[in-house]
Amino acid sequence: MAQIQWYPGHMAKAEREIEGKMKLIDIVIELVDARAPYSSKNTTFDRLIKNKPRLLVMTKKDLADDAITAKWSQYFEKQGYGVMVANMKNFNEYKKIIAKCRLILKDKMEKEASRGLKPRAIRAMVIGVPNVGKSTFINSLAKRKAAVTGNRPGVTKAQQIIRVEKDFELFDTPGVLAPRYNDEEIARNVALIGSIRQDILPRDDLFIYAVKYLNKQYPDALKKRYDVSFDEEDDWVIPVFDQIAKVRAIKKVRGETDYERVMDVFFKDLQDGAFGKISWEMPPCVND
Ligand SMILES: Nc1nc2c(ncn2[C@@H]2O[C@H](COP(=O)(O)OP(=O)(O)OP(=O)(O)O)[C@@H](O)[C@H]2O)c(=O)[nH]1
């Protein structure tokens, strides 16, 4: 695969900032995309947060394959994570997330109380790679609770804290982690879920990969949308382009199928969830 040159300086800076903030927070709420939870997880971050308690939230459950999401939950739970599956667009999702954070920190808070420390709010921070729903989550909380408090020790005015509930506070700016792209399959997955720009990869390669994957894992979805199904052994690429162009009435250019337009339509469909609930990767136990 062509070398992908993409690691903006601000990402490295963001990671340093997150590391600096670790001492101010009790729990990290780490968001990953349920459609590709492994690929959308930044593993270098594990080193940054050390042993900080954390809740792993698999977002966009409404777009992912439920059976596979359930397997991923088990997989991460086995690794010792507190895990939740969420649709960040749901109005009340934040309540469940807060309740789970409280549960994870219950022992710690009780221990503090038994040592005679003054009761205090749990302080959390949301982190994750681009496009996993961090802002959606924070904005939904910020809308409910306008009371933002800044000017606290160690907290700059730019980084403010939202008091969500009496005993729960959240940094109003998420920690943005670098998406992974050093492995071909991971890079494709993060492109397909919109965490890196699709044009970082050769677009036709991504298209071919995605169509082939859907044909294998979700043949009904592909058939329903474009009336397409094929045998991988056959010469299928051009006929599939032509078929999508036909079904979606894409105008020909000088008598030829407009391949770029076909890919535009396909990726737009993908982004809009037009194929139904799709997961792009399975946990290891599912492949066995
Ligand atoms: N269907 C669905 N869409 C979601 C969900 N969470 C977020 N989105 C959508 O995904 C897109 C990205 O959400 P953001 O909240 O901006 O993601 P982010 O992690 O803050 O992204 P960056 O700002 O790029 O770091 C938006 O269009 C959201 O509406 C979810 O659980 N389900």
Explain what the structure shows.
The longest helix is centred in the middle third of the chain and has 22 residues, at 93-114. The protein has 288 residues and is α/β, with parallel strands linked by helices. Strand 6 (161-165) and strand 7 (168-171) form a beta hairpin. It has two domains: 9-176, 3-Layer(aba) Sandwich (Rossmann fold); 202-287, Conserved Hypothetical Protein Ylqf, Chain: A, domain 2 (Orthogonal Bundle), CATH 1.10.1580. It is elongated, with a radius of gyration of 22 Å. Mean pLDDT is 86; it is low at 1-5 and 146-157. Strands 1, 2, 3, 4, 5, 6, 7 and 8 form an eight-stranded mixed β-sheet that branches. The protein is 43% helix and 13% strand. Bound molecules: guanosine-5'-triphosphate. Guanosine-5'-triphosphate binds next to helix 5. Guanosine-5'-triphosphate is lined by residues 59-60, 62-63, 87-89, 128, 130-136, 176.
Helices, strands, pairings?
Blueprint: H1 9-21, E1 27-33, H2 44-49, E2 54-59, H3 66-78, E3 82-85, H4 93-114, E4 122-128, H5 134-144, E5 148-149, E6 161-165, E7 168-171, E8 175-176, H6 184-192, H7 203-217, H8 219-226, H9 237-247, H10 259-271, H11 284-287
Parallel strand pairs: 1-2, 1-4, 2-3, 4-7, 4-8
Antiparallel strand pairs: 5-6, 6-7
